[in-house]
Automatic annotation (TrEMBL):
<keyword id="KW-0862">Zinc</keyword>
<feature type="active site" description="Proton donor/acceptor">
    <location>
        <position position="273"/>
    </location>
</feature>
<comment type="similarity">
    <text>Belongs to the peptidase M14 family.</text>
</comment>
<dbReference type="InterPro" id="IPR055438">
    <property type="entry name" value="AstE_AspA_cat"/>
</dbReference>
<dbReference type="Pfam" id="PF24827">
    <property type="entry name" value="AstE_AspA_cat"/>
</dbReference>
<dbReference type="InterPro" id="IPR000834">
    <property type="entry name" value="Peptidase_M14"/>
</dbReference>
<dbReference type="GO" id="GO:0004181">
    <property type="term" value="F:metallocarboxypeptidase activity"/>
</dbReference>
<keyword id="KW-0479">Metal-binding</keyword>
<keyword id="KW-0378">Hydrolase</keyword>
<feature type="domain" description="Peptidase M14">
    <location>
        <begin position="29"/>
        <end position="298"/>
    </location>
</feature>
<dbReference type="GO" id="GO:0016788">
    <property type="term" value="F:hydrolase activity, acting on ester bonds"/>
</dbReference>
<dbReference type="GO" id="GO:0008270">
    <property type="term" value="F:zinc ion binding"/>
</dbReference>
<protein>
    <recommendedName>
        <fullName>Peptidase M14 domain-containing protein</fullName>
    </recommendedName>
</protein>
<dbReference type="GO" id="GO:0006508">
    <property type="term" value="P:proteolysis"/>
</dbReference>
Length: 304
């Protein structure tokens, strides 16, 4: 595959403002954040606390940012953070976060304070995009003076919680469009070459290189195995070019890369990766896999 084969820009030259504007003007609304996400969140108001922690400047009415919190916070309980939709196009991350709240969160709230931000990038959700309108990846932007307002808003929310996060589960997908659209766009924007184009067929996790917490990751993999298949390593014994830490698990430097999973100092962190384009999966299966990852992780924490 020609990593630079992309319709915008000149090969070998990084994008400037004109190229980013051309990219933005090519984006189209493809689904409704209000109908598919906000309406479900508002439907939870009788059982959970809903907090609007901001709105995106691109359209403040269209893109309010919501977090859902368990009731009756108790500072003696550990606090759990679940995030979805950092990459708006990764649908099961958003819908899996909502499904967890709808079906499981109340039971776990007996033991934990729970805060869920189901859709961090609603413009990305509507346009099915990895980036925000400024061609910035929110999942590489969780650091001070972030260039992504989606990331900055979440950091402001977390700073105001008044509690340290004990565990953070960030819900993602790996899709075929990573190869057909998003990696070529990234290569063109930054004038770089990508050497790995493998997309794992199945679910996997990304832990933190510095703080991997192997048993935590194992528990989630075992839980998800009951719902969907775990991605096997490729012919090099890797997933997306990274050596396996254990079956179905690789590790990234979450803070150094500005990833959402590194946004807190939580002891237990992971990023889920569901593969919705697998012939062995469907939309519902992917949502259930996300929920199983969360519950598997929380069940492990309850044994500590």
């Amino acid at each position: 595959m020609d990593q630079q084969a992309y319709a915008i820009g000149v090969k070998g030259q990084k994008w400037g403002g004109a190229e980013k504007a051309q990219w933005f003007n090519a984006q189209k609304i493809k689904r409704s954040y209000q109908e598919e996400v906000v309406s479900k969140i508002l439907g939870l108001k009788d059982r959970f606390e809903l907090a609007q922690y901001g709105s995106l400047s691109y359209d403040v009415e269209r893109y309010p940012l919501f977090a859902v919190k368990s009731l009756n916070w108790d500072m003696s309980k550990p606090t759990i953070l679940v995030t979805g939709g950092v990459h708006g196009y990764e649908t099961s991350g958003v819908q899996g976060a909502i499904r967890f709240i709808e079906t499981q969160a109340a039971d776990y709230a007996k033991h934990f304070n729970i805060v869920v931000a189901p859709c961090i990038s609603p413009w990305g959700y509507e346009t099915i995009n990895r980036w925000n309108p400024n061609a910035v990846d929110p999942n590489r932007s969780f650091y001070q003076d972030s260039p992504a307002e989606e990331s900055a808003a979440l950091m402001t929310l977390l700073a105001g919680l008044g509690a340290e996060v004990f565990a953070h589960i960030d819900l993602h997908e790996t899709t075929d469009t990573d190869n057909s659209e998003f990696r070529p766009a990234l290569a063109a924007r930054d004038a770089v070459e990508h050497t790995n184009w493998n997309i794992p067929d199945g679910f996997y996790l990304v832990g933190d290189t510095i703080n991997p917490q192997d048993a935590f990751q194992t528990a989630m993999i075992k839980s998800v195995e009951q719902v969907t298949h775990i991605a096997p390593a490729d012919e090099s014994g890797k997933l997306i070019g990274v050596e396996l830490a254990q079956f179905g698990v690789i590790n990234y430097a979450t803070k150094a890369l500005g990833l959402c999973a590194g946004v807190t100092d939580a002891k237990y962190v992971t990023t889920t990766e569901v593969y919705p384009d697998s012939p062995l999966a469907d939309d519902e299966n992917c949502i259930l896999a996300q929920v199983a990852a969360i519950t598997g992780g929380l069940d492990y924490l309850l044994t500590l």
